[in-house]
């Protein structure tokens, strides 16, 4: 990890803000484009069904990637823990569909916190 | 534009609970990440205000730290945001066409995974004319908590032990994973399974384009499988 002072010499502030502005415009571009074309689509159409499937596939890919192939802090947790905690949360969710979101989330989150605590304690 | 005040407030109230708490936690974790990587507080919180797309924000911070070029960063973040195109294409047609106005271009900034997932689940149970008002209230709360949470996360970064941070950065992806179990249409359920699998595989070879590949390939296959079964039932 770089020290802040090293970082600022490698990348000046103006450059960072320029990257930020470009990234924000790029993000809004897709949102705006979606609104623009959304008027031409009926929610009963086959096109809508296909687009929904494409969106869910994309969002699922993103979610699975963050959990299984993360970068940064989550990458310090072994994949077996990330996978195990996710499976336990899913089992809780399926145990009573529609009513167990909060317990499943809490168990999953505390599962990871407990792992972190255990590692702190052991090291 | 004609928003129904009572429905807007109902949406806002529904957001103040698990959805806002989850976003708040994720943004706390993101603020701490900005601090740990040596970014300044303004830049870190500006991403939550102006970009409001957690995965893209994380990519931005990581690439800034790797001192990638501005163009490379913009392209990478823009690619992770492609999902917003089809998210909007599937969200806005559910509002009555007579409500369409330039207000859409403002409210679209509030579209992110949390509000989208909840809307896709709950809109079918709602009167069409109530949906825009509900979404506006709900998504505004999600957006409005994000920037303060980022600032707070940044300021607390040194004091929060890393095991708490682990929980904070995990809660968002876990929430999305759990919402998938509540998706009803068969095509979308198949799409989630295929998209997750194809996304993982394609990430190993084409990390920048893996979401697009997973979306187009997984989504199209899921749509075709679903259509095959629909046709068989009618035949």
Description:
The complex is a heterodimer of chains A (123) and B (235). With 123 residues, chain A is an all-alpha fold. Chain A has 5 helices and no strands. In chain A, α4 packs antiparallel against α5. The longest helix of chain A has 26 residues. Chain A starts with a helix and ends with a helix. Chain B has 235 residues and is an all-alpha fold. Chain B is globular and about 65 Å long. In chain B, α2 packs antiparallel against α3 and α2 runs parallel beside α4. In chain B, 77% of the residues lie in helices and 0% in strands. At the A-B interface, α1, α2, α3, α4 and α5 of A face α2, α3, α4, α5 and α6 of B.
Explain the layout of strands and helices.
The complex is a heterodimer of chains A (123) and B (235).
Chain A: H1 4-10, H2 13-38, H3 46-68, H4 79-95, H5 101-122
Chain B: H1 5-15, H2 18-36, H3 41-50, H4 54-65, H5 70-80, H6 83-91, H7 103-107, H8 113-122, H9 128-156, H10 162-180, H11 186-205, H12 210-234
Helix pairs in contact in B: 1-9, 2-3, 2-4, 2-9, 2-10, 3-9, 4-5, 11-12
């Amino acid at each position: 990890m770089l020290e802040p002072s090293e970082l600022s010499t490698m990348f000046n502030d103006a450059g960072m803000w320029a990257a930020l502005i470009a990234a924000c415009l790029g993000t809004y571009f897709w949102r705006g484009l979606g609104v623009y074309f959304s008027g031409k689509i009926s929610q009963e159409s086959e096109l809508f069904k296909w687009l929904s499937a494409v969106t869910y596939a994309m969002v699922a890919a993103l979610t699975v990637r963050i959990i299984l192939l993360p970068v940064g802090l989550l990458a310090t947790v072994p994949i077996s823990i990330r996978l195990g905690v996710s499976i336990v949360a899913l089992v809780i969710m399926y145990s009573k569909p529609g009513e167990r979101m909060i317990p499943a989330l809490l168990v999953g989150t505390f599962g990871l916190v407990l792992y972190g605590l255990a590692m702190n304690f052991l090291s | 534009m004609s928003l129904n005040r009572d429905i807007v407030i109902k949406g806002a109230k529904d957001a103040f609970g698990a959805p806002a708490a989850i976003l708040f936690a994720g943004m706390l974790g993101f603020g701490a990440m900005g601090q740990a990587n040596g970014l300044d507080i303004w830049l870190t919180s500006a991403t939550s205000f102006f970009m409001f797309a957690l995965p893209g924000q994380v990519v931005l911070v990581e690439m800034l730290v790797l001192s990638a070029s501005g163009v490379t960063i913009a392209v990478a973040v823009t690619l992770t945001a492609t999902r917003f195109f089809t998210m909007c294409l599937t969200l806005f047609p559910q509002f009555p066409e007579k409500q369409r106005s330039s207000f859409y271009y403002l409210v679209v900034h509030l579209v992110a995974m949390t509000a989208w997932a909840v809307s896709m689940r709950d809109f079918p149970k709602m009167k069409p004319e109530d949906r825009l008002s509900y979404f506006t209230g709900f998504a505004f709360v999600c957006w409005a908590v994000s920037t303060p949470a980022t600032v707070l996360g940044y300021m607390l970064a040194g004091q929060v032990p890393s095991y708490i941070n682990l929980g904070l950065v995990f809660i968002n992806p876990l929430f999305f994973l759990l919402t998938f179990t509540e998706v009803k249409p068969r095509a979308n359920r198949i799409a989630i399974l295929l998209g997750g699998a194809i996304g993982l595989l394609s990430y190993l070879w084409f990390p920048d384009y893996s979401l697009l590949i997973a979306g187009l390939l997984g989504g199209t296959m899921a749509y075709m499988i679903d259509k095959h079964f629909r046709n068989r039932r009618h035949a």
